[in-house]
TrEMBL record:
Pfam families (alphabetical): DUF2097
Protein name: DUF2097 domain-containing protein
Amino acid sequence: MEEEIFLKAEDIIDYVRDNVKTHDILEISYNRIYAPGEVLGVEIEEEYGEEFLEVTLHLNGDLVNQIVRINMHAIKDDLIEIRHTQGEELKVLVAES
């Protein structure tokens, strides 16, 4: 079952922090980048006195099979959508302006 939700970028970050768990599937689209993969971790990090949410993904693909860390606060202005699959449930979080 697919559910489409329209949220502001800050609310999408809050959703990821509160709902995304290890081994979920995230497909993050921002700017011109598409990063699909399995979630290895969701952590709140601190840098220069500011907190930010960091998602670690094991990317899917035949040619690319690597681990990336994405600072969600750094990409929030370029965020287009996130597809979150948890079990049989799919939620599409679309970024509003």
